[in-house]
Specification:
By secondary structure, the chain is of the alpha/beta class. The protein folds into two domains: 255 residues, Aldolase class I (TIM Barrel, Alpha-Beta Barrel), CATH 3.20.20.70; 104 residues, no CATH class. It is 43% helix and 13% strand. An eight-stranded parallel β-barrel has the order 3-4-5-6-7-8-9-10, surrounded by five helices. A two-stranded antiparallel sheet has the order 1-2. The radius of gyration is 22 Å and the shape is elongated. It binds flavin mononucleotide (FMN) and iron/sulfur cluster (SF4) (2 copies). Flavin mononucleotide (FMN) binds next to strand 4.
Length: 377
């Protein structure tokens, strides 16, 4: 199947072949590393590269202490050369950077251009980097992080922010701050928090989310995708065999379900994209407090859903519980009545889930942008 049909995912104008990201490892992840894995990855975050005098000095200290780092006197030339090698690879190219000031990041973007994604390393916890004012220091100085995002966005480039969950005062507030500053992607090292933090961030912003930490099996991948991740990333476990296995299972799962990142139902701990599967708001269940938190009344929710499915195959389903497929459950929940309605509408299970994805996108537009799709009658 065509990768766009399979995942419907684009980053920086490039179709993502598979939602598997090669996460950066300083001194390790460069173009050669990515080429050796290009068949089973969709994106690479090269680096991290230290991009100004202060952070280059920090890199030298780390090398003296025995760590691997990319040492170069001309980071712009190096990043440009590495990116050039990957131009034909089909990978979305990103570069993970450590800078001591917002202007350092903007200068690289100005010089290298919009063909690559610029990832701010707000993750590194090595002491010399923190002292240089980057890495984890940015999670304690979110004004500077915000200014760094804005400085990059003024260069008209796509921006990712690599964070470590549980370091900032409140990751939900951080996610909203990054979103409003213009970031396109949040790349989250979930540490030991797992999908709980991921769901919180998913429910706080509409950005592309890359989930990271200990992704080494499809069970972990599925857990991330069903709780809000658009992509998963691997660093320590990004060996070719693991990547090939994940890519194969990911493709099979996507083809079978029709929506590779289908959320769990809300009452099973799903994120708010799962409102697409919720029933009419007529019973006491997690939907009610969720709508209250979102500032959406029950009547508005009904109008929203019915409006969003109007003139789509989900408008049918008169014999289902609530008279429309708009209110029906995930295809993984067995149901004779829904299946009969799908048969009548000539919809396969995976087409049904594609329609639910469209519905979810419309609902998320209302949640995050205030757009409404009200039923007109
Ligand atoms: C040797 C090594 C170097 C790393 N260098 C960077 C870096 O430069 N920038 C960054 O954002 N993360 C860096 N990371 C963090 C990884 O990208 C990733 O977030 C972390 O290892 C957890 O993911 P994993 O379980 O897939 O390894 C590094 C990790 C390792 C092991
Ligand atoms: S509305 Fe239905 S699917 Fe949604 S939380 Fe309630 S019981 Fe679960
Ligand atoms: S008809 Fe079946 S799928 Fe639809 S809401 Fe009822 S139980 Fe769920």
């Amino acid at each position: 199947m065509d990768p766009y049909d399979r995942y419907e995912l684009m980053v920086n104008g490039t179709v993502v072949n598979t939602p598997i990201v090669l996460a950066s490892m300083a001194g390790v992840v460069d173009a050669e590393y990515a080429l050796a894995r290009q068949d089973n990855a969709g994106m690479v975050c090269m680096g991290g590269y230290s991009i100004d005098e202060t952070t280059m000095a920090a890199s030298r200290l780390l090398v003296e202490a025995g760590r691997d780092e990319f040492l170069t006197d001309d980071p712009v030339a190096e990043i440009r050369a590495q990116a050039q090698i990957l131009v034909e690879s089909g990978l979305v190219i990103a570069v993970n950077m450590r800078g001591s000031a917002p202007e350092s990041y903007a200068a690289v973007a100005r010089a290298v251009g919009s063909g690559i994604v610029y990832e701010i390393d707000a993750h590194c916890r090595q002491e010399p980097m923190i002292a240089a004012g980057c890495g984890e220091a940015l999670l304690h100085d979110t004004e500077k992080l915000e200014e760094t995002v804005r400085a990059l966005k003024r260069e008209n480039v796509k921006v990712s922010v690599k964070i470590r969950a549980g370091v900032a005062d409140d990751d939900r507030v951080l996610a909203q701050t990054l979103w409003h500053a213009g970031a396109d992607i949040i790349h989250i090292d979930l540490m030991d928090f797992g999908h709980t933090k991921l769901r919180q961030i998913r429910n706080a912003c509409p950005l592309i989310l890359i989930a990271n930490n200990s992704v080494n099996s499809f069970t972990v991948v599925k857990d991330m995708l069903t709780h809000g991740a658009d992509m998963v990333s691997l660093a320590r476990h990004a060996d070719p065999a693991t990547l090939a296995d994940l890519n194969k299972q990911m493709a099979a799962y996507a083809d079978e379900t029709g929506w590779y990142s289908t959320p769990k139902q809300l009452c099973r701990g799903g994120d708010i994209r799962s409102l697409a599967f919720c029933c009419m708001p007529v019973k006491n269940c997690p939907l009610i407090p969720t709508l209250e938190n979102l500032g959406i009344s029950r009547n508005e929710f009904m109008s929203l859903k019915l409006g969003a499915v109007k003139n789509t195959p989900l408008a049918g389903g008169a014999n289902t519980c609530f008279g429309s497929l708009a209110w029906c459950c995930k295809s993984s929940t067995p149901c004779m009545f829904r299946n009969m309605a799908l048969k009548d509408a000539g919809l396969s299970q995976s087409d049904y889930m594609r329609c639910k994805r469209r519905l979810s996108e419309k609902l998320m537009k209302r949640v995050f942008e205030g757009d409404a799709f009200y039923a007109t009658e």
